Amino acid sequence: MSLISDNIKYLRKKLGLTQEQFAERIGIKRSLVGAYEEGRADPRITNLINMADIFGTSVDILINKDVSKLGDAELNVSKFKRGKEVLAITVDSDQKENIELVPQKAAAGYLNGYADREFIQELPKFKLPMLPSNATYRAFEITGDSMLPILPGTIIIGEYIDDVRDIKNGKTYVLVTKSEGIVYKRVFNYIKDTGKLFLVSDNRNYAPYQLDFEEVLEVWSSKAYISVQFPDADSSNEVSTEQLASIILDLQKEIIQLKDKAK
To answer: Is 0.85 topped by the overall pTM?
Structure first.
Protein backbone atom coordinates (compact mmCIF):
# COMPACT_ATOMS: atom_id res chain seq x y z
CA MET A 1 0.00 0.00 0.00
CA SER A 2 1.16 3.58 -0.68
CA LEU A 3 1.66 6.27 1.93
CA ILE A 4 -1.53 8.07 0.97
CA SER A 5 -3.52 4.83 1.11
CA ASP A 6 -2.28 4.13 4.63
CA ASN A 7 -3.02 7.71 5.66
CA ILE A 8 -6.60 7.65 4.40
CA LYS A 9 -7.32 4.38 6.17
CA TYR A 10 -5.61 5.48 9.40
CA LEU A 11 -7.40 8.84 9.59
CA ARG A 12 -10.79 7.39 8.64
CA LYS A 13 -10.54 4.88 11.48
CA LYS A 14 -9.29 7.61 13.83
CA LEU A 15 -12.54 9.49 13.15
CA GLY A 16 -14.52 6.32 13.81
CA LEU A 17 -16.08 6.26 10.35
CA THR A 18 -16.93 3.22 8.28
CA GLN A 19 -16.01 3.25 4.59
CA GLU A 20 -19.69 3.80 3.81
CA GLN A 21 -19.98 6.79 6.16
CA PHE A 22 -16.73 8.29 4.89
CA ALA A 23 -17.82 7.86 1.27
CA GLU A 24 -21.10 9.66 1.99
CA ARG A 25 -19.28 12.64 3.49
CA ILE A 26 -17.01 12.93 0.43
CA GLY A 27 -19.82 12.26 -2.04
CA ILE A 28 -18.32 9.15 -3.68
CA LYS A 29 -19.05 5.41 -3.74
CA ARG A 30 -17.89 3.16 -0.89
CA SER A 31 -16.07 0.95 -3.38
CA LEU A 32 -13.92 3.92 -4.38
CA VAL A 33 -12.88 4.49 -0.77
CA GLY A 34 -11.87 0.83 -0.64
CA ALA A 35 -9.83 1.26 -3.83
CA TYR A 36 -8.06 4.29 -2.34
CA GLU A 37 -7.23 2.47 0.90
CA GLU A 38 -5.97 -0.61 -0.93
CA GLY A 39 -3.84 1.43 -3.33
CA ARG A 40 -5.78 0.33 -6.41
CA ALA A 41 -6.70 3.91 -7.36
CA ASP A 42 -5.32 7.40 -6.76
CA PRO A 43 -7.74 10.06 -5.47
CA ARG A 44 -8.56 13.00 -7.72
CA ILE A 45 -7.43 16.38 -6.42
CA THR A 46 -11.02 17.40 -5.60
CA ASN A 47 -11.49 14.27 -3.48
CA LEU A 48 -8.12 14.84 -1.79
CA ILE A 49 -9.20 18.35 -0.85
CA ASN A 50 -12.50 17.08 0.55
CA MET A 51 -10.74 14.36 2.54
CA ALA A 52 -8.19 16.80 3.93
CA ASP A 53 -11.06 19.06 5.07
CA ILE A 54 -12.78 16.14 6.81
CA PHE A 55 -9.56 15.06 8.50
CA GLY A 56 -8.73 18.64 9.53
CA THR A 57 -5.35 18.54 7.81
CA SER A 58 -3.77 19.60 4.51
CA VAL A 59 -3.41 17.84 1.16
CA ASP A 60 0.36 18.18 1.50
CA ILE A 61 0.38 16.27 4.80
CA LEU A 62 -2.02 13.67 3.43
CA ILE A 63 0.28 12.98 0.48
CA ASN A 64 3.77 13.38 1.92
CA LYS A 65 3.68 12.56 5.65
CA ASP A 66 3.16 9.37 7.66
CA VAL A 67 0.23 10.66 9.70
CA SER A 68 0.43 7.78 12.17
CA LYS A 69 3.68 9.33 13.42
CA LEU A 70 2.33 12.89 13.76
CA GLY A 71 0.87 14.44 16.86
CA ASP A 72 -2.40 16.37 16.70
CA ALA A 73 -0.56 19.71 16.66
CA GLU A 74 1.45 18.63 13.60
CA LEU A 75 -1.52 17.02 11.87
CA ASN A 76 -4.03 19.80 12.27
CA VAL A 77 -3.73 22.94 10.16
CA SER A 78 -5.35 26.31 10.68
CA LYS A 79 -8.74 26.58 8.99
CA PHE A 80 -7.80 30.14 8.08
CA LYS A 81 -4.76 29.17 6.02
CA ARG A 82 -5.16 28.30 2.35
CA GLY A 83 -2.05 26.07 2.15
CA LYS A 84 0.90 27.82 0.55
CA GLU A 85 2.95 24.65 0.93
CA VAL A 86 0.82 22.95 -1.73
CA LEU A 87 0.25 25.95 -3.99
CA ALA A 88 0.84 24.78 -7.56
CA ILE A 89 3.38 26.98 -9.37
CA THR A 90 5.69 26.85 -12.39
CA VAL A 91 9.26 28.10 -12.76
CA ASP A 92 11.44 29.12 -15.68
CA SER A 93 14.85 27.74 -16.68
CA ASP A 94 16.46 29.85 -13.94
CA GLN A 95 14.11 28.38 -11.32
CA LYS A 96 12.29 31.70 -10.94
CA GLU A 97 8.53 31.65 -10.54
CA ASN A 98 6.33 32.48 -13.52
CA ILE A 99 3.09 34.42 -13.42
CA GLU A 100 0.43 32.02 -14.67
CA LEU A 101 -2.56 33.52 -16.48
CA VAL A 102 -6.06 32.18 -15.87
CA PRO A 103 -8.00 33.40 -18.94
CA GLN A 104 -11.76 33.64 -18.86
CA LYS A 105 -12.18 30.35 -20.77
CA ALA A 106 -10.10 28.50 -18.13
CA ALA A 107 -11.88 29.97 -15.08
CA ALA A 108 -14.26 27.04 -14.60
CA GLY A 109 -11.45 24.51 -14.96
CA TYR A 110 -9.34 26.41 -12.45
CA LEU A 111 -11.86 25.67 -9.68
CA ASN A 112 -11.05 21.97 -10.04
CA GLY A 113 -7.44 22.29 -11.12
CA TYR A 114 -6.04 25.12 -8.98
CA ALA A 115 -4.03 22.64 -6.87
CA ASP A 116 -3.15 20.38 -9.82
CA ARG A 117 0.39 21.06 -11.04
CA GLU A 118 -0.32 19.52 -14.44
CA PHE A 119 -3.27 21.88 -14.95
CA ILE A 120 -1.25 24.92 -13.84
CA GLN A 121 1.60 23.85 -16.14
CA GLU A 122 -0.73 24.20 -19.15
CA LEU A 123 -1.70 27.81 -18.38
CA PRO A 124 -0.07 30.71 -20.28
CA LYS A 125 2.90 32.22 -18.43
CA PHE A 126 4.70 35.56 -18.41
CA LYS A 127 6.94 37.86 -16.35
CA LEU A 128 6.56 41.35 -14.89
CA PRO A 129 10.03 42.45 -13.79
CA MET A 130 8.73 45.45 -11.79
CA LEU A 131 7.05 43.21 -9.20
CA PRO A 132 9.02 42.22 -6.06
CA SER A 133 10.51 38.75 -6.42
CA ASN A 134 9.75 37.60 -2.85
CA ALA A 135 6.11 36.74 -3.54
CA THR A 136 3.98 34.45 -5.69
CA TYR A 137 1.75 36.00 -8.33
CA ARG A 138 -1.08 34.85 -10.60
CA ALA A 139 -3.08 36.68 -13.26
CA PHE A 140 -6.85 36.46 -13.76
CA GLU A 141 -8.93 37.79 -16.66
CA ILE A 142 -12.04 39.37 -15.17
CA THR A 143 -15.54 39.41 -16.65
CA GLY A 144 -18.53 41.70 -16.26
CA ASP A 145 -18.72 45.38 -15.36
CA SER A 146 -19.13 45.16 -11.58
CA MET A 147 -15.73 46.74 -10.95
CA LEU A 148 -15.89 49.68 -13.36
CA PRO A 149 -13.83 51.59 -14.37
CA ILE A 150 -11.83 48.33 -14.52
CA LEU A 151 -13.23 46.95 -17.77
CA PRO A 152 -14.24 43.38 -18.71
CA GLY A 153 -11.27 41.52 -20.16
CA THR A 154 -8.80 43.31 -17.89
CA ILE A 155 -6.10 41.06 -16.41
CA ILE A 156 -5.64 41.48 -12.66
CA ILE A 157 -2.24 40.51 -11.23
CA GLY A 158 -2.64 39.14 -7.72
CA GLU A 159 -0.15 38.32 -4.95
CA TYR A 160 -0.89 35.09 -3.08
CA ILE A 161 -2.22 35.52 0.48
CA ASP A 162 -1.86 32.39 2.59
CA ASP A 163 -4.06 33.40 5.55
CA VAL A 164 -7.57 34.67 4.82
CA ARG A 165 -7.43 36.70 8.05
CA ASP A 166 -4.80 38.93 6.40
CA ILE A 167 -7.40 40.47 4.08
CA LYS A 168 -7.39 44.24 4.60
CA ASN A 169 -10.64 46.19 4.65
CA GLY A 170 -11.41 48.11 1.49
CA LYS A 171 -8.65 46.56 -0.64
CA THR A 172 -9.37 44.67 -3.85
CA TYR A 173 -8.78 40.93 -4.15
CA VAL A 174 -9.30 38.05 -6.52
CA LEU A 175 -11.04 35.31 -4.53
CA VAL A 176 -11.28 31.74 -5.77
CA THR A 177 -14.42 30.39 -4.09
CA LYS A 178 -16.40 27.17 -3.94
CA SER A 179 -19.82 28.66 -4.68
CA GLU A 180 -19.16 31.96 -6.51
CA GLY A 181 -16.27 30.87 -8.73
CA ILE A 182 -13.50 33.42 -9.36
CA VAL A 183 -14.53 36.91 -8.25
CA TYR A 184 -12.74 40.26 -8.20
CA LYS A 185 -14.14 42.55 -5.50
CA ARG A 186 -13.39 45.11 -2.84
CA VAL A 187 -13.39 43.09 0.37
CA PHE A 188 -14.19 43.89 4.00
CA ASN A 189 -12.98 41.42 6.60
CA TYR A 190 -15.38 40.55 9.44
CA ILE A 191 -14.11 37.03 10.03
CA LYS A 192 -13.32 37.73 13.69
CA ASP A 193 -16.86 38.96 14.40
CA THR A 194 -19.09 36.85 12.15
CA GLY A 195 -16.89 34.51 10.11
CA LYS A 196 -17.92 36.46 7.01
CA LEU A 197 -16.35 38.54 4.28
CA PHE A 198 -18.31 41.38 2.68
CA LEU A 199 -17.75 41.71 -1.06
CA VAL A 200 -18.39 45.13 -2.58
CA SER A 201 -18.44 46.14 -6.25
CA ASP A 202 -17.05 49.50 -7.37
CA ASN A 203 -20.02 49.76 -9.74
CA ARG A 204 -22.85 50.98 -7.50
CA ASN A 205 -25.42 49.10 -9.58
CA TYR A 206 -24.28 45.88 -7.88
CA ALA A 207 -25.30 45.20 -4.27
CA PRO A 208 -22.70 44.07 -1.69
CA TYR A 209 -23.02 40.52 -0.40
CA GLN A 210 -21.62 38.26 2.31
CA LEU A 211 -19.42 35.21 1.89
CA ASP A 212 -18.45 32.67 4.54
CA PHE A 213 -14.65 32.61 4.81
CA GLU A 214 -14.67 28.80 4.54
CA GLU A 215 -15.97 29.21 0.98
CA VAL A 216 -12.64 30.74 -0.03
CA LEU A 217 -10.11 28.44 -1.70
CA GLU A 218 -7.47 31.03 -2.65
CA VAL A 219 -6.87 34.72 -1.95
CA TRP A 220 -4.90 36.97 -4.33
CA SER A 221 -4.28 40.61 -3.37
CA SER A 222 -4.44 42.80 -6.47
CA LYS A 223 -1.10 44.45 -7.29
CA ALA A 224 -1.40 45.53 -10.93
CA TYR A 225 -3.62 45.23 -13.98
CA ILE A 226 -3.16 44.91 -17.72
CA SER A 227 -5.74 46.16 -20.21
CA VAL A 228 -5.85 46.97 -23.92
CA GLN A 229 -8.78 49.31 -23.25
CA PHE A 230 -8.49 52.68 -21.54
CA PRO A 231 -11.18 53.54 -18.96
CA ASP A 232 -13.93 55.85 -20.18
CA ALA A 233 -13.79 59.42 -18.90
CA ASP A 234 -17.35 58.93 -17.65
CA SER A 235 -16.91 57.35 -14.23
CA SER A 236 -20.53 57.76 -13.13
CA ASN A 237 -20.74 54.10 -12.15
CA GLU A 238 -17.67 54.25 -9.93
CA VAL A 239 -18.20 54.24 -6.18
CA SER A 240 -17.24 57.62 -4.68
CA THR A 241 -15.38 58.03 -1.41
CA GLU A 242 -18.64 59.10 0.25
CA GLN A 243 -20.51 56.08 -1.10
CA LEU A 244 -17.76 53.74 0.05
CA ALA A 245 -17.87 55.30 3.53
CA SER A 246 -21.63 54.77 3.59
CA ILE A 247 -21.19 51.10 2.65
CA ILE A 248 -18.67 50.63 5.45
CA LEU A 249 -21.03 52.27 7.95
CA ASP A 250 -23.89 49.98 6.88
CA LEU A 251 -21.64 46.93 7.26
CA GLN A 252 -20.58 48.04 10.73
CA LYS A 253 -24.22 48.47 11.76
CA GLU A 254 -24.98 44.97 10.52
CA ILE A 255 -22.08 43.58 12.57
CA ILE A 256 -23.43 45.28 15.70
CA GLN A 257 -26.91 43.85 15.06
CA LEU A 258 -25.47 40.33 14.59
CA LYS A 259 -23.52 40.66 17.85
CA ASP A 260 -26.67 41.79 19.69
CA LYS A 261 -28.62 38.79 18.34
CA ALA A 262 -25.82 36.44 19.43
CA LYS A 263 -26.06 37.77 22.98
So the answer is: no
